[in-house]
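Record type: monomer structure entry
Structure origin: computed from sequence
Chain ID: A
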Amino acid sequence: MKEQLYRWRNKQIRQHTAVVNGDIAPTLVLKNATYLNVFLKQWIKANIWIYEDRIVYVGDDMPDYVSDRTEIKDCSGQYLVPGYVEPHVHPFQLYNPHSFVEYASKRGTTTFVNDNLMLLLLLQKKKAFSLLDDSQTLPVSMFWSARFDSQSELRDEEELINDETVLDWLSHDAVMHGGELTNWPEILNEDDRGLYWMQETKRHRKVVEGHFPGASIKTLAKLKLLGADGDHESISGDEVYNRVSLGYYTGLRYSSIRPDLPNILDDLKAYDGEYYDYLFFTTDGSTPSFYEQGVIDRCIEIAIEKGVKPEEAYAMATINSARYFGIDHRLGSIAPGRIAHINFLEAPDQPEPTAVLAKGEWITFDGYAFQRLTPDIEWLRYGFSELNIDWSLREDDLIFSSPIGMKMLNDVILKPYPVKSESQSQQLPEEDDTAYVMLMDRDGEWRISSFLKGYTKSIGGLASSYSNTGDIVLIGKNTDDMNMAFERMKALGGAIVVVNDGDIIYELPLPLQGVMSDLPMDELMAKERELKTLIKEHGYSYSDPVYTLLFLSSTHLPYIRITPKGLMDIKKKEILFPSVMR
């Protein structure tokens, strides 16, 4: 059934109490279970009764009445913990929402709060809400955010993100929070519309999730006054402690672009106080192959390795996030009334589960619930089709002339640099790491081009329909190879394609609006590893070339970005050179 604001109807609740009374048989009994009580932070021996998707009893008794449809599982020698919560998911990092949660659930993460940015950019609202509603039938708990900005400079942003859209999203029962606030400097200074949306979020009794990297104590205090509740951008123990001291719920991040968790936990050893109740884990939308080591289970493992008590580590992965979002009456614990999300462990210090129960369905035990309940997703029903690009690059598109280029300082930070000479040639020399770069409207209406230092020394052409705005990114040192990569990307209906010396040397089809793959996670991980290896062999010296593609147009990062409106100075909020209509 769909997970509405009130998950169970009165008739069902009466059935649940009837199970405790012995009038109705439970559907599943976990006997001789040693489970973590996250309220007491103690391991307790008990029998756990479940009816369909809800825990109805936890205690010493066995049910008086069972039927031939009651499954009884002896949990002797196992340790049970609540299903893990991933409170900050970006489910479009080449994978899609379904493939990610299918993979993560097998590692014990059974609740997800997802970014809605790509749904805003790529789908009609009615189609997006159909996806939200239908995702509630999955054997996991799926929730979403309501974004207040595009994280870039769109030419038509007012049409996509406006009062009606934001308020409709905030009103949806599957939406848990407003944000993340990547546009917080504007809201802090003059953006009354953003402040209004924050206040509407509070009126709906939902939380406001921040994005406050490097914010000072005074800035954090002012953002608290505006209504911010949490933030996941701390990169040190000092920043975590400062946020908690001001009343923020604070995410500890372990992601492909910011694997800060181990260092933060080391830093926190210097602080006294009961701050763990306000901490949670997030992998913050990592690229696919990063998840080979796990999802939230890996975060718990790192915490235990760093000396955090297992009981605290599991609470950080479960009840803390549930309390943050105000849904701890529904999940985050093994207790009466909660959704039956339960992980089965071999030992308290081994968070990767041997079996997973999600909404009362076995995920990794006696059959796989995803394959049985949702074997296929009809993506076209929601508007996720292949890209239909009916235009081609013109000769003048591939003439690059810009006095300012972008130099990579790391995977995602770009600094402006002066271009000493304009290039009218088809080939850049391979003795340095300068490449052509272009962002093109997916409908072919505009383009903006420049130069990019640090991405490659020798790739002839890379075309990517995967980007933060859903537009087309072209990078390379040879315009013929760039054009060939574009044509192959177009033929695939969206893809990342790499061409060198006239040969296609890599392609990853992205049939879901040109942004997401429909491959299972294990196959996608292999394809992404192949791409990373290839790009690094051609001169990329950082860790995550896929994230570089995503964030080329992201204006929440310094110092210069290539956006749909043009080449932008982030600090001054000025367009240095506008995009050109074709």
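Annotation 1: The CA atoms of residues 388 and 493 lie 6 Å apart.
Annotation 2: The radius of gyration is 25 Å.
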